[in-house]
Amino acid sequence: MSSLSGKVQTVLGPIEPSKLGRTLTHEHLAMTFDCCYYPPALCYEATSREPIMMKNLFWIQKNPYSHKENLRLNQEMEAVREELLYFKAKGGGAVVENTTVGISRDMKALRWFAEETGIHIIAGAGFYVEATHSPETRAMSVEQLTDVLVNEILHGADGTSIKCGVIGEIGCSWPLAESERKVLQATAHAQAQLGCPVIIHPGRNASAPFQIIRVLQEAGVDISKTVMSHIDRTLLDKTELLEFAQLGCYLEYDLFGTELLHYQFNPDIDMPDDNKRIRRVHLLVDEGYEDRILMAHDIHTKHRLMKYGGHGYSHILTNIVPKMLLRGITENAIDKILIENPKQWLTFK
Ligand SMILES: [Zn+2]
């Protein structure tokens, strides 16, 4: 047990969990995604280098990872600040900003957003997928990796005294890379030591979440403090989803706002749209899992900001919640998903 027990740790310090309010549990406010640039078809090479404009916006929406400028969310500090204020005006209270090492985490930017907007921001410790691990990270033992994670939570990250309040998003590929397995084991060790929350980015295969939970549990994680992200694009089969739900981790539908014809990272996956996400959330509520569901947008590129005609950080509050109510999900269940579950998850044991 640490001195953080019973508290949530934001970038401005520990707070009482009841202060959080409506919380988005998987977002990015400043990051780069160059690691996942996806070269366009030859005939679109010129388009991929154009500035973002109305004329090419639909193409960028459908091919977000083939446009280099689109992958630089960290160039939009002012737009993100404004959109956080809008989120607050619509009833938002907190954001988990789970940018980790490898995709340009910026602790000072997160502190600035928190100070400027009054939104509670919780920063993420740890490492993104193996493709972004440095040679030093790959060479570390599980014990050394555990020390890095514990240090980012207790003392501060990236040479600052600004502290992380959650481990993750921890990046996993499919198949799982060896250095990712070590990071997962370190995550479990640090979690057990600190009683902190954990959030995982699984590989794009239905077996990935099951394998990850096995690795974490064998290393001693508290599964009730663990979030599996991106369920929407990973567990599409209903039977598999309900089987996974039994394991007891949080199930995060965090790609709200993403409606893609072609999913560049895995063409075998038909990315669900928001209506399908709502139906899945409804199913999980009906099956008794309302205290395990979390929701977010996972904004990580420019085109999803309102500045570029995107849905922004308020889409769930302004558009998705009314549709959930229309489909018969109760206000009580929605409050659990947006307020109570994030609060329970983020509170240190
Ligand atoms: Zn993410």
Automatic annotation (TrEMBL):
<dbReference type="Pfam" id="PF02126">
    <property type="entry name" value="PTE"/>
</dbReference>
<feature type="binding site">
    <location>
        <position position="201"/>
    </location>
    <ligand>
        <name>a divalent metal cation 2</name>
    </ligand>
</feature>
<feature type="binding site">
    <location>
        <position position="169"/>
    </location>
    <ligand>
        <name>a divalent metal cation 1</name>
    </ligand>
</feature>
<dbReference type="GO" id="GO:0008270">
    <property type="term" value="F:zinc ion binding"/>
</dbReference>
<feature type="binding site">
    <location>
        <position position="298"/>
    </location>
    <ligand>
        <name>a divalent metal cation 1</name>
    </ligand>
</feature>
<dbReference type="InterPro" id="IPR001559">
    <property type="entry name" value="Phosphotriesterase"/>
</dbReference>
<dbReference type="GO" id="GO:0141215">
    <property type="term" value="F:N-acetyltaurine hydrolase activity"/>
</dbReference>
<feature type="binding site">
    <location>
        <position position="169"/>
    </location>
    <ligand>
        <name>a divalent metal cation 2</name>
    </ligand>
</feature>
<protein>
    <recommendedName>
        <fullName>N-acetyltaurine hydrolase</fullName>
    </recommendedName>
</protein>
<feature type="binding site">
    <location>
        <position position="230"/>
    </location>
    <ligand>
        <name>a divalent metal cation 2</name>
    </ligand>
</feature>
<feature type="binding site">
    <location>
        <position position="28"/>
    </location>
    <ligand>
        <name>a divalent metal cation 1</name>
    </ligand>
</feature>
<dbReference type="InterPro" id="IPR017947">
    <property type="entry name" value="AryldialkylPase_Zn-BS"/>
</dbReference>
<dbReference type="InterPro" id="IPR032466">
    <property type="entry name" value="Metal_Hydrolase"/>
</dbReference>
<keyword id="KW-0479">Metal-binding</keyword>
<dbReference type="GO" id="GO:0030855">
    <property type="term" value="P:epithelial cell differentiation"/>
</dbReference>
<feature type="binding site">
    <location>
        <position position="26"/>
    </location>
    <ligand>
        <name>a divalent metal cation 1</name>
    </ligand>
</feature>
<dbReference type="GO" id="GO:0032098">
    <property type="term" value="P:regulation of appetite"/>
</dbReference>
<dbReference type="GO" id="GO:0019530">
    <property type="term" value="P:taurine metabolic process"/>
</dbReference>
<comment type="similarity">
    <text>Belongs to the metallo-dependent hydrolases superfamily. Phosphotriesterase family.</text>
</comment>
<dbReference type="GO" id="GO:0005829">
    <property type="term" value="C:cytosol"/>
</dbReference>
<keyword id="KW-0378">Hydrolase</keyword>
